[in-house]
Amino acid sequence: MLTAIAIAVDGLGFAAWLFLSSVGLTLIYGVMRILNIAHGGFYALGAYSSAWAIGLYTATGSPVAFSFLLIPLAALIAGGIAGLLVERGILKFMYGRDEVLMVLVTYAVFLILEDVTKLIWGTESYIAWQPAFHFGTVEIVGIPYTVYKFLIIGTALLVGLSLFLVLNKTRVGKLLLVVIEDREISSALGINVTLFFSVTFVVGAILGALGGAITAPEISVSPGIGAEIIVLSFAVIVIGGMGSIGGAMIGAVIVGFARAASVHLYPPAELFSIYLVMAAVLAVKPYGLFALAESRKI
């Protein structure tokens, strides 16, 4: 019984983190058809910015409770600036090119962002534990969990709900759906496709940075965290269906519970379990659970 509860809570916490870290990747692919490898760089920028800002803030002796507000602020600034520079400085010249070429370009951007983080923050690890431990712990049937874990779960639900409402209940969201359906027709109708691309990429970069920023208080922020998250995020969106926000959420839940179950039942299979689930899903649904196969133009 205790093991089942531990798997459920840990699975939800891991799923929330994965969703926040991968939703920006699937959003950019859904709109722009770009598999953005640079997403890992945005994640790292958010993590470093958050840890650095929290460290400076707490060093002043200010109330630790307010340090939580620095997390979305760091993600907004770091992701917004980096996303805008990458999209306006590089990607806008590459639109319409082959998708494989775009993967190579974004991979090059990822390598650049990795070096940028080292130039700004060095190679030392940053630890910003204050927000995670300030809120204390809560016991569930005798098992202690940090309250911060549930704040991450709440943040993931809020982000998912916000994206759903924007895409389905607003005029901007409906125009974006038109752009996704057919770029040429959208342009003919007077829709500024370039502007939608720019905004989408920046929003996706901010979401990627948010995933890193909100994770920073629970980990040691060090070089290489961006490479790890891009692999896990890719597994999530492939399982859910590339370009599907709902699919990213379901994929994160599946991966989260698979990972939690393996950790508690058979720890050596922790990493293997994620890719086993991905392989099993793709064997049945080659395009993911919630993505339709696209017609191929010859």
TrEMBL record:
Keywords: Amino-acid transport, Cell membrane, Membrane, Transmembrane, Transmembrane helix, Transport. The keyword Nucleotidyltransferase does not apply. One of its GO terms (cellular component) is plasma membrane. GO terms for biological process: amino acid transport. Its main location: membrane. GO terms for molecular function: transmembrane transporter activity. It is found in: Cell membrane. InterPro entries: ABC_transp_permease, BCAA_transport_permease. It holds the Pfam family BPD_transp_2. The chain crosses the membrane at residues 6-29, 41-59, 65-87, 99-121, 147-167, 188-214, 247-266, 272-293. It comes from the Bacteria. It is a multi-pass membrane protein. PANTHER family: ABC TRANSPORTER ATP-BINDING PROTEIN (PTHR11795:SF442), BRANCHED-CHAIN AMINO ACID TRANSPORT SYSTEM PERMEASE PROTEIN LIVH (PTHR11795). Belongs to the binding-protein-dependent transport system permease family. LivHM subfamily. This is LIV-I protein H. It comes from Shimia thalassica. The gene is livH_5.
